[in-house]
Specification:
By secondary structure, the protein is α/β, with parallel strands linked by helices. It has ten helices and ten strands. Strand 7, helix 7 and strand 8 form a beta-alpha-beta unit. The radius of gyration is 18 Å and the shape is globular. This is ABC transporter ATP-binding protein.
Length: about 270
């Protein structure tokens, strides 16, 4: 089916009724997602060592740290891909620690893994259809929401009928994020979306994520690209050796070079 069936709105916007449904009772910093004392073992390996993490509703929380610090392991654990051996994972106040991944996703959490996980032999359209659980045919997709996604990621409209495996790396990443957004989600969890992408593509992705941020979508974002972190983050948590060793406002980390050096071993300014 051709993408010409849908025309992008003027301007592109989140369809009405798709704002996050969760309204915390104690202000905008009430956690939508909360991990308390989370430990994870994979075989004989103790990967997470008591992770405490809060993701406030309506904000972008950056999860930073050196390679091997436990960031991806944290995402896999909160999504139920790995089971926490101790501690709790709560979403909107509900304990989801032992829930299966499909049950967690059904609660409104979308996960974009580092590997992107797209189906290369399927078209862009078919990849989006698979992610839209309420649609059985392309004609069932929400046309208004699809137009909004085309506004964020125009390449998806251009390559609507093309095999996803033939897209560029940046286009594949855009498709992976669009799949997570094809239906309303309360929390978007993204693992290193800019990894391996050219600077111009990263700039386009920052612009799209900034527009998404303007919709008050709650995002937990793992990144190694500090330009992305500084431009998008509201809050930040830094991991080391399977633990959260710092959390606070992103602005505080940006303005404190000594803290950057102590926590990350580098200067954010040098990576702009």
């Amino acid at each position: 089916m051709s993408a010409e069936r849908w025309a992008a709105p003027e301007p592109a916007h989140v369809p009405s009724g798709d704002r996050p449904a969760y309204s915390p009772g104690e202000g905008p910093t009430q956690p939508l997602l909360e991990l308390r004392g989370v430990h994870t073992h994979v075989g004989a390996y103790h990967i997470l060592h008591g992770v405490d993490l809060e993701v406030p509703a309506g904000q972008v929380t950056m999860l930073l740290g050196r390679n091997g610090a436990g960031k991806t392991s944290t995402l896999r654990t909160l999504m139920g891909l790995w089971t926490a051996s101790a501690g709790t994972v709560s979403f909107k106040g509900e304990d989801i620690t032992k829930h299966a991944t499909p049950d967690i996703a059904a609660r409104g959490i979308a996960y974009v893994p580092e590997t992107m996980g797209i189906f290369g032999e399927l078209s862009v359209a078919e990849n989006l259809l698979l992610a839209a659980r309420s649609a059985r045919r392309l004609a069932d997709l929400d046309a208004k929401r699809l137009a909004w996604l085309f506004g964020l990621f125009p390449a998806l409209k251009t390559f609507w009928a093309h095999p996803a495996g033939k897209l560029s790396g940046g286009q594949k990443q855009m498709l992976a994020i669009a799949r997570a957004l094809i239906e309303p989600r309360e929390l978007l969890v993204i693992d290193e979306p800019s990894k391996g992408l050219a600077p111009a593509i990263v700039a386009n992705m920052i612009a799209a994520l900034r527009e998404l941020k303007g919709t008050a979508t709650t995002v937990l974002l793992v990144e190694q690209n500090f330009r992305v972190a500084t431009e998008l983050g509201d809050r930040v948590a830094v991991m080391d050796d399977g633990r959260i060793v710092h959390h606070g406002a992103m602005r505080e980390l940006i303005e404190d070079s000594a803290l950057q050096q102590r926590l990350l071993g580098l200067s954010l300014a040098a990576h702009q």
